[in-house]
Design brief:
4-stranded antiparallel beta sheet; ATP-binding cassette domain-containing protein; ATP binding; binds adenosine-5'-triphosphate; alpha/beta; Rossmann fold; globular
Length: 294
């Protein structure tokens, strides 16, 4: 659980001059960031920019070449595995997950950090698992093999495991990957309702604009811009970083909405917008969300 002695104003993560060099390649270059708690923060940038590497550095999965990563005012590399797992859940991209377990057992695995060498799960663990599955609307799948769930259901089961783990910080690597638009919206809504902090890599800039409180735009291992979506999703910055023509409009909710095309075409009138089709028209988005709540 979150350590109550930590002041709410203490950054969740503080990165100071983080560099990661591997085989003479600079994968992360001098990254300094101070990230607030209880927000949804999106890491955006082109393929190979270093988004997943940054997420792994925050989780202490890689030993950076220079600089420090502090989580709740303590170096992430000093956390023991169990202690870290009680606070942070790292959810990788789905294709790498091959649980040969039932949904129940996959979620119960979230209690491992709380168990001793010879202790087994008890009735309170069972209640936690069932309550998390209920929250994620997966109670009817409890005995189903995890591998047979749809991508969206697997993501929800992994979030249930994070809840059972007691983690108040979720680090997610491209959680919307492989999900159809409805499941993407459902997942983002679940993350909005999560009672804690969420940091995720995400490719869909319009989805990021709509759901993230802050964005970190990175390119070639460097932070290009960090701030609120309206500061980061600037046509010039996005055009330069992604090497596409970009036009930014304002959605009816006041968030940036971006149109793209390859250089020298007109982004709005060109035939094929490359990411989410026609405005993630906020009205229809909200209609869908409110339908889900019925
Ligand atoms: N373990 C590794 N060994 C060698 N190179 C690596 C390793 N991890 C990452 N890289 C390289 O670092 C760069 C950044 O990779 P990373 O996966 O962080 O990018 P990304 O922004 O998440 O990309 P994508 O959007 O394609 O998932 C890439 O050039 C990648 O090949």
């Amino acid at each position: 659980m979150f350590d109550k002695s930590i002041l709410p104003t203490t950054p969740l993560f503080k990165l100071n001059g983080v560099c990661w060099n591997l085989a003479s390649k600079d994968i992360l270059k001098n990254i300094s960031l101070s990230l607030p708690r209880n927000k949804i923060i999106g890491i955006i940038g082109p393929n190979g920019a270093g988004k997943s590497s940054l997420l792994k550095a925050m989780h202490g999965q890689i030993k950076t070449s220079q600089g420090t990563v502090d989580f709740n005012d303590q170096p992430i590399l000093q956390y023991g595995l169990k202690d870290k797992a009680k606070q942070i859940a790292f959810i990788e991209q789905l294709p790498e997950l091959t649980f040969d377990l039932s949904v129940y057992d996959a979620v119960l695995a979230g209690r491992l950090p709380y168990q001793g060498l010879f202790s087994f799960s008890n009735s309170s663990d069972k209640n936690r698992v069932l309550s998390a599955l209920e929250k994620m609307e997966l109670l009817d799948k409890v005995s189903q093999p995890f591998n047979t769930l749809s991508g969206g259901e697997q993501q929800r089961a992994l979030i249930a495991r994070s809840l059972v783990q007691g983690a108040t910080t979720l680090l997610l690597d491209e959680p919307t990957n492989h999900l159809d638009i409805r499941h993407q919206l459902e997942l983002m809504q679940t993350l909005q309702e999560f009672d804690g902090s969420v940091i995720m890599t995400i490719h869909d800039l319009n989805m990021a604009s709509h759901y993230c409180d802050y964005l970190i735009l990175i390119n070639e291992g460097e932070v290009v811009k960090y701030g609120e979506p309206k500061e980061v999703l600037n046509a010039e910055l996005i055009s330069t970083t992604y090497k596409v023509e970009t036009v930014v409009k304002e959605s009816s909710l006041g968030t940036p909405y971006l149109y793209f095309c390859l250089a020298e075409s007109d982004p709005i009138n060109s035939a094929e917008p490359i990411n989410s089709a026609e405005p993630i028209n906020s009205a229809s988005l909200l209609t869908l969300q409110s339908n889900n709540n019925d």
